[in-house]
Amino acid sequence: MKHMNSEVKEERTSNKKRIDLFLVPIVLIAAFLNLFKIWTDEYANAYYTAAVKSMLQSFHNFFYASFDPGGYVTIDKPPVVFWIQTISAKIFGFHGWSVILPQALAGIGSVLLLYVLVKRTFGVWAGRFAALAMALTPIVPAVSRTNNIDSMLVFTLLVATWMLFRAVRTAKFGWVLAAFAMIGVAFNMKMLQAYMVLPAFYVFYVVATKITWKKKIAFLTTATALMLAVSVSWAVVVDSTSADKRPYMGSSQTNSVLELAFGYNGINRLTGNTSVTGSSHKQPAQAQQQTASSETKQTSNSNAESSQSSNQSKSSSSKKMQAPGGGNQNGMFNTGNPGPFRLFQKGLSDQISWLLPFVIFSIVGLFAGVKFKGPYTTKQKESLFWLAWLLPVAVFFSIAGFFHQYYLIMLAPPIAAFAGVGAVALWSMYKQRNGWKSWLLPGGILTTAALQVYIMSPYVSSIGVAPIAGVGTLGVILALILAVRKERKNAVTNYLGVAAMVVLLAMPAYWAMTPIIYGGNSMLPAAGPDSSSGMGRPPSTATNSKQSGFNGMQPPGSSSGNSSSNNQMQPPSGSSNGGQMQMPGGSSNNGQMQPPSGSSNNSQMPNSSSSKSSSSKRKSGGMNAEVNKKLLNYLTKNNTGEKYLFATTDSTSAAPYIIETGKPVMAMGGFSGSDPILTVSKLKAMIKKGEVKYFYLSGMGKGGQSDVITWIKENSKEIPSSKWQSTSSSSQQGPSGNGTLYEITLK
C-alpha cells in the first residue's frame, strides 16, 4: 500500500510539470463533436431562443426569463442557463450559435472535469479512458450542440462533484457547503433533475469522511439547508412578487414557480401525468403532447442527407406506438416501456448504453470482496460515489412515465467513469491472473460487443451490414483470443487489449458524429442516423427526415401547394388504432392525435420539393418554422401603436416572429396553449387599452383557452387571407397550420 501511495504521489508531481499529451486529442475530439457546424442552426430551440431575444431587451425580462419581449409569460424552466445564454448573445451578438455556445463549452468542460476527477485516484490512463468515453457518449454531443439545458446541468453537477471530492481530501467544511450550494444552482437550471445526484453526495460524504457521526449529520444538515435555500431563492422572489408586476409562470397552472418545480418539472415526470389540471377542459391530444415539455416541439433538419431521407421514408404506419407504461414498440418519444431492461431497449440504448455491459463487469470486479463494514480504500469510496450516481438515475429512467431521450445525459458521467476505471482495473486483474476476476475483461468485451450489434441492428438500412458484422466479429475474436492467451504476458497481449477498447468505442464514436453527418434536432436532440427526425426513430420506422415529427405543417399565413393524400399529416410512424396515440398519463379523445382544427387542408404535408429551405442555415427550432413575410408586413403596416404585434394560441407560432423582429407576440396560453393565463375580461381590458388587436388562430393547443378563443371568434372581424396569406408553393414551412387572422377593436 505504501508503495502504491508513493507511486501515486510521484505521478501527481510528474503530471503537474507537464501537459498530458494524450488528453489533447481527446479534448479536440470533444471540441469537434460539440462545436462543428453549430453556426448553421439559426433558430436552435426556438422556444428558448425567443426567450433570449426577449431577455436581451430589459432587465425585467432577463430576471424572469420572459418568453416574449412584452413580459406576458415566462418559459417553463428556471433562468440560470438562459442568463448565461443571454450574456453570450450580448457578447457575441444574437445568433443561433451564440445561444448554443455555452452548452457546447459545457460539454467540453465535462470531459475535462471527468478526467480530473478520475485521474487523481485511479491513475492517468483511467482518466484518459473516462474522458474519451464521455466525449464519445452519443447523447452528450447531441445535447451539447443545442440550447437545451442538460449539458450545462451535467457540467454544473460535475463541478459540485469536484468540490465534494476536495471537501473530503482537505477535510474543510467550506467545500461541503460549496458543493451543495452548487447543486442549488443546478436546481435553478432544471429543478428536481439536479437532485438526482444527491444519493451519491450523501453516501460518499458519510463513507469517505473520517469525522464523528455527530459532525457528519451536522455538516450534511447545514449543507442541505444551504442547498435548499439556494434552490428556492429565485422561486421565492418570483412567487412573492405581485402577479400583475411580472410575467405569468409558463407551464404552471397556478402561476407559481414552486408548483412548476414539483409538479410539471418534478413528480409528473415520474408518474407520466401531463394532463392539464388547472383547466375545466381536457386538452386535445396534440395539445397534451406539446404541454408535456418544451422539448416536445418537433423539428427536422432541412439539410439532412437525401440518401438518408430515402431510407427513412420506408416507414410503416401500422405499428402500434404507446406511451411509457404499456404496450409495445418504443413508447412516447421513443423512450421504451418501463422495466428493468428499459435502457437496453431501442431508442434509449443507442443514446447511452453502448458500454453498459462493460460497466457492469467493471462494477463486479471493483466491488468483489469488499466488506460492507469496510474499511474502504479511496478507490472503493469514489467507485461507490459513481455507483450511487448511476443506480438511482438508471432506476428513474427505467420506471419514469415521461421524459425525453436527451435526459439520459445524466447517466453519461458515471458510465464514462466506470468505463475508464474498469478498463484499467479489469486489465490489471487479467494481467495478474486474479482468479475468476481475470475472466471479467474478455467477458465484458464479448457482452458489450453483443449489445452493440443489437443496438445497431435496426439501422442496417442506413449504416449497412459491414459495421455491425465488424463489431460483432472483432469483439468475439478479441474476447476469445484474450481468453486463450490469459496465461501469457507479452506485447501482443497488450495490443489486443487496446484493440478491444478501440472496437468497443468505434460505433459510439460514429453515433456521436451523426448530428454532424445527418443533421441535428434542436428541439429533441438525439444521436443516430435519424438524428434530425426529432423522434429518434430507427430508419425502419421513421418518416422522411424532411417531414419527420410534425414538420411540414404550415406557418401563420402560408398555404400548401400540394394536397396529395400521401402528404397528409400522420401520427408518428409506428402507430396504429386508426392513428391513435396514447399520451403519458392518459389523455382525452382516447389519445387520438388530432390535426389542427383550424387547418383548411387537413394539415396536409407539403411534398419534399416544397420543404427545401432556400437558406444555407437551418431554422429548425420552430419545426422548421420561418416568418411569413406577407403576414409580418400586414401586421406591421396596420399596427396603430398596439403593444403586441399579434396574439396567438401558443409559443410555436409566436417564437419565430419574436426571434426575427424582437417585437412582443402574445402566446395566450403559454408554451402549449394550455396555461390558464388569460380570461375574457382580461382580454377585453387589454384590447380597450390598445395593447392588442390582431389574433392568429390555428386550432393548435387550445387547452384551457377555449372560452377566450370562442369569444375572439364571435367578436372579431376575419381578415381575408388574400391580404396576409402567402400563396407561394415554396413558402417556408412551419408548425401552425392554415389558421385565420382576426381583428378586434373595442370602444
UniProtKB/TrEMBL annotation:
Residues 273-334, 528-625, 718-747 are annotated as: Disordered. The keyword Cell membrane applies. Residues 631-715 form the Putative mannosyltransferase YkcA/B-like C-terminal domain. This is Glycosyltransferase family 39 protein. Residues 76-234 form the Glycosyltransferase RgtA/B/C/D-like domain. One of its GO terms (molecular function) is glycosyltransferase activity. Residues 273-282, 530-550 have a biased composition (Polar residues). InterPro entries: LipidA_mod_glycosyltrf_83 (IPR050297), RgtA/B/C-like (IPR038731), YkcA/B-like_C (IPR056785). It is a multi-pass membrane protein. The chain crosses the membrane at residues 21-39, 100-118, 125-143, 149-165, 172-189, 195-213, 218-237, 352-372, 384-403, 409-427, 439-457, 463-483, 495-513. Residues 283-320, 551-575, 592-614, 721-739 have a biased composition (Low complexity). GO terms for biological process: lipopolysaccharide biosynthetic process. It is found in: Cell membrane. It comes from Priestia aryabhattai. Pfam families: PMT_2, YkcB_C. Its main location: membrane. Coiled coil: none annotated.
